[in-house]
């Protein structure tokens, strides 16, 4: 849990959880998202809600790991003794929602006025391009951490800015552009991040066009 | 590469690859699948073909691993020093094919006349059930290793046999049933396992019904 003071400094609560009782417990809701959770945790929690409510089946893929050495002790589980983190070749999340293939990645930035494109790897963008080509619903969930603002940003919009950086364009997307083209997602109680409501908007606008 | 003798014993070629040249190298194709590849490798290779040909975007999910200890040596990559394999909570493969969400698992059996249901975990079957509910195309690729026969078996068929084992039914599916209800997939050169042709049959029969 981190508290962000107006002067920009951050206070991190000690890990043994000597922190004020959650606003949830006080039955007074302040919907800034649970500041103790990372974006990944917020999304996982939301996905679990969607799963349990039979709304969608969307999971985070496990982190790819290259295993070098494994021990097999007698009568106990195999122990991985040497392994390395690998770069993901796809996005982190995918699944199905009402017959639609959903594919997205989640990115946080501490910047206040823009989102650096370097947050994406080239192969992630290429993966999304291939999924869009197959008819998938692809996007990024972009969080401005310091202001707790979250946006769904369509992959097709991302592609434009991604490609333009190679022909003299900017290496980042202005927050004002993300506000204009993206769909703002407001934190809620359950699911924490109701991003499928934003996907509904995408699907509706698709139907109209 | 393992050679399976008729008496049931197995000979594993030494790792330095002193094994007979692949039939592919001899330019004489025997389409039993490459016996040096596991089913997983065959599917990964096929998925790569589908990906490169812009036919579908289907990936194997990384194996979930619980990381306990990581070292961060100076000036080099983080090394995982203690970690354990976790059971997957979903199937191994998913992705998108012509707008359809695809979700499946691959299972091998050395049995000759039946496929033991114990090859599946309960949560994998539940995952497929939820995906089918959302409109996904779900199935198992079942390989009878000793005869190199491969079948696409629809998840909805699997559910019947899976459920019946809890009410006095058999703990396995007879091969004759898999031959009757499933779709046989013949090995080919590229993709090694043309399983999307079998999916086409599923999609066509869906359209008719």
Automatic annotation (TrEMBL), chains A, B:
Question: What's the cofactor?
Answer: Mg(2+)
Q: Where in the cell is it found?
A: Cytoplasm
Name the residues annotated as site: Transition state stabilizer: 107
Q: What is its main location?
A: cytoplasm
Cofactor: binding details: Binds 1 Mg(2+) ion per subunit.
Homology family: Belongs to the RecU family.
- Name listed for the protein in its UniProt record: Holliday junction resolvase RecU
Organism the protein comes from: Apilactobacillus apisilvae
Question: Gene behind this chain?
Answer: recU
């Amino acid at each position: 849990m981190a508290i962000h003071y107006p002067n920009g400094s951050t206070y991190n609560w000690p890990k043994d959880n000597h922190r004020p009782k959650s606003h949830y417990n006080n039955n007074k809701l302040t919907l800034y998202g649970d500041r103790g959770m990372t974006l990944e945790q917020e999304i996982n929690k939301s996905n679990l809600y969607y799963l349990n409510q039979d709304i969608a089946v969307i999971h985070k893929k496990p982190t790819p790991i290259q295993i070098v050495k494994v021990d097999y002790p007698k009568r106990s589980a195999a122990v991985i003794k040497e392994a390395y983190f690998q770069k993901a070749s796809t996005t982190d999340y995918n699944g199905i929602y009402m017959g639609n293939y959903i594919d997205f990645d989640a990115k946080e930035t501490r910047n206040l006025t823009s989102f650096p494109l370097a947050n994406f790897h080239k192969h992630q963008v290429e993966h999304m391009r291939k999924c869009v080509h197959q008819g998938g619903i692809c996007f990024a969930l972009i969080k401005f951490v310091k202001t707790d603002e979250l946006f769904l940003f369509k992959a097709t919009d991302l592609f434009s800015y991604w490609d333009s950086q190679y022909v003299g364009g900017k290496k980042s997307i202005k927050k004002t552009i993300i506000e204009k083209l993206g769909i703002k997602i407001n934190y809620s109680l359950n699911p924490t991040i109701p991003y499928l409501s934003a996907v509904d908007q995408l699907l509706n606008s698709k139907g109209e066009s």
